[in-house]
Amino acid sequence: MTASQIASSSIIDDIARLTREAARQLAVLSTDAKNQAIVAIAIALEAATPEILAANAADCKAAAAAGIPKPLYARLKLDETKLQGAIAGVRDVGRLSDPVGAVQIHRELDTGLILKRITCPLGVLGVIFEARPDAVMQISTLAIKSGNGVILKGGQEAVRSCEALVKAIRQGLTQTGINPDVVQLLTTREETLELLKLDQYVDLIIPRGSNSFVRFVQNNTRIPVLGHAEGICHVYVDEAADIEKAVAITVDAKTHYPAACNALETLLVHNAIASEFLPKVAKSLQEKNVELRGDEKTCQILDIAAATEADWVTEYSDLILSIKVVHSLEDAINHINTYGSKHTDAIVTESSEAAATFLAQVDAAGVFHNCSTRFSDGFRYGFGAEVGISTQKMPPRGPVGLEGLVTYKYQIVGDGHIAASYSGADAKPFIHRDL
Amino acid sequence: MTASQIASSSIIDDIARLTREAARQLAVLSTDAKNQAIVAIAIALEAATPEILAANAADCKAAAAAGIPKPLYARLKLDETKLQGAIAGVRDVGRLSDPVGAVQIHRELDTGLILKRITCPLGVLGVIFEARPDAVMQISTLAIKSGNGVILKGGQEAVRSCEALVKAIRQGLTQTGINPDVVQLLTTREETLELLKLDQYVDLIIPRGSNSFVRFVQNNTRIPVLGHAEGICHVYVDEAADIEKAVAITVDAKTHYPAACNALETLLVHNAIASEFLPKVAKSLQEKNVELRGDEKTCQILDIAAATEADWVTEYSDLILSIKVVHSLEDAINHINTYGSKHTDAIVTESSEAAATFLAQVDAAGVFHNCSTRFSDGFRYGFGAEVGISTQKMPPRGPVGLEGLVTYKYQIVGDGHIAASYSGADAKPFIHRDL
């Protein structure tokens, strides 16, 4: 370690410890107190609008001078309308139901010995995101609503914007009973690496960024990570598919928002329907400027480029689609379970039996029948907010709402009960009656 | 890698792949089919009793010759009564409710567009346990009940017993529709290391063994681990405690089963009650041969050895107790949140306010009021079975029953629905009505 690395490491350690201490107080606040704090944040952001816009203008000027790509510039740019929209989003989080304090189990173990399983905050979240300043407002508010402290690290190009936003948020918190230390901002890449090591203070890392960045985070921390490295989604058009639905679903899944993780990457088509379906879907896709790549059988039907093995494991995030002809439902399921990323996969069929087999046997967070993969989304599921989408097997899996930011604890209240009474020769039985 | 390591690695890879494939078929079986398989296993184990007892006798003879400690020998030894008890336990698992197929969310997103969140098996479990052959029967049955394949690795001393048991279990499965490859046995330490690397095939590792072994597993795999390295549990005797209850709870938590992870390791006592309580509890504990170690203040009241900083972070798993006098409820909570292992901590008090603060602010899987820490247990909670106890923050946390062996997937059934209909100028609204 260099001297500056040691300094950075000990500073982050201090920041994380402060966040944890502040979060412990936040964790026990009432829903009302948290909602009032969220309103105070919205008011403080409104009051700081000139400073926030000025900071963002400086970020944008520097980014433009450095020549960042247009889509990144669009995400970085925060004008008054976008800021007002984000502040409205802050107030919306106040209206979501509180994920903390839900009683999941309430059980009489024995007379006067009562077990409860109650949701509670995780503690401290570490959220690493790209240069999009609106994320600061959304994430901070979701953290406070769920009773968690949060350590934020935004993309380097947005550093002035993030600083102005976090300053306003913390200013808003000083008007409430909440210690402003629950919201922290890191500004350097070195600090990010330190953050990933702090498993004694940080309970969950949420990386938002490129696939390779998420994979880097997953491989470099012992802290649980909420996120997915890849979204390789499939649509399988069964032999019993309604062709019109299949075309509409394929075009929507591929072209509605190609950069989204729930967009279609590989189309699987049953052999029996391929010669009828493929020319129709190809025409619709090509009208939307989608580049097609097919396996051998597909290329016998369509005049398109040949797909290679690499295509089956590629998330294009662009107007490109690979196509494969399969000989059975089982073939399709095997392809998906082999090459997919366990994100979202759909079958188009009028056979309820084929649909049931697909939904049961495809191993993915989302398994859909006769609808677009694009529905895989926390807002569309009615979660009110989406914290991230997880492709891990263990819960939380799929789109994760506020409930992904809480855990639970078991509480037992007794009256001097001891375990020895329930074992040995004269053992009392347990009642185990749900209340 | 040496040639033999390469060979071992590729064999384990094949075993894990076979297990995953067999588990995919198991995952979609009905509750009845799984329960029939569990009965078939029980019958096969009964039929193989002579072979199993002979194999165990050979293990015991070798272990005795090698001079293994008495408690380990007792766990290794499988006589006819113990085997019959374990087979009865197998049949009991058949009677537990099926954790697979539970509908957790059922929601109309729009007319004809229905979302369900349904529990499903994880896939393949890797379970590494000590030389206790009864674990083979319990774990295999819990895996099948939850629809998972399982790769077992038992302690080296039990290798003959484990082989005989797994042979009988697989023999039982051949009488059913379940591929016997869902239950696999590894027999060497090298294979364990290989198993920890197979994150593409194995979905959850459950290590059962010493703290240092669990920590080793946690530090050497990317696969999620269900387990806890340490159980440093506390009892805090508040100034408003009922002394009689406090003595009974302390003695029970420390002496009922000192080797258990939910046993008491550190007693915290409020200053205001210390001079009255400590002599009474010390007398009761010393009658049970508990060695006491105290902080400075405790040693002013009791004639016992001095505790050092190391005592606060030690799980004795033995008849030893460290004692500290604290000056407030807050002091007690801080001590627990600093030195505890987030397993189970209890307060003894007649003040409901102090109890509420303790239950809210202590960060542990189990937070108890006026009862022994020993109640932290899946069977005592009424889970029917306990797969393990987790001290991680993310769920599953605390004692984990069969529900810890399943995950969930989101299913959507539509009728040609596409996402484009719900965005843009003429966007349809979502209904989001729970069914």
Q: Spans of chain A with pLDDT under 50 lasting ≥5 residues?
A: none
Mass-distribution shape of chain A:
globular
**What's the end-to-end separation of chain A, in Å?**
56 Å
Q: In CATH, what is the homologous superfamily of the largest domain in chain A?
A: Aldehyde Dehydrogenase, Chain A, domain 1
Q: What's the level 1 CATH class of the largest domain in chain A?
A: Alpha Beta
Number of strands of chain A: 17
Number of helices of chain A: 14
Alpha-beta classification of chain A: alpha/beta
Specify the oligomeric state: homodimer
Could you tell me the strand content of chain A as a percent range?
15-25%
Our count of domains of chain A comes out at 2
Q: What composes the largest sheet of chain A? A: 7 strands, parallel
Q: Radius of gyration of chain A, Cα only, in angstroms? A: 25 Å
User: How would you state the average pLDDT of chain A, rounded?
Assistant: 94
Pfam families (chains A, B): Aldedh (PF00171)
Domain Aldehyde dehydrogenase (chains A, B): 120-301
Organism (chains A, B): Funiculus sociatus GB2-A5
Pathway (chains A, B): Amino-acid biosynthesis; L-proline biosynthesis; L-glutamate 5-semialdehyde from L-glutamate: step 2/2
Describe the secondary-structure layout.
Two copies of one chain form a homodimer.
Chain A: H1 3-26, H2 31-47, H3 49-66, H4 70-76, H5 80-95, E1 103-110, E2 113-121, E3 124-128, H6 134-145, E4 149-153, H7 159-174, E5 183-186, H8 189-195, E6 204-207, H9 211-219, E7 233-237, H10 243-255, E8 264-270, H11 271-287, E9 291-294, H12 296-301, E10 305-306, E11 320-326, H13 329-339, E12 344-348, H14 352-361, E13 366-371, E14 388-390, E15 398-400, E16 406-417, E17 433-434
Helix pairs in contact in A: 1-8, 2-5, 2-7, 3-7, 5-6, 10-11
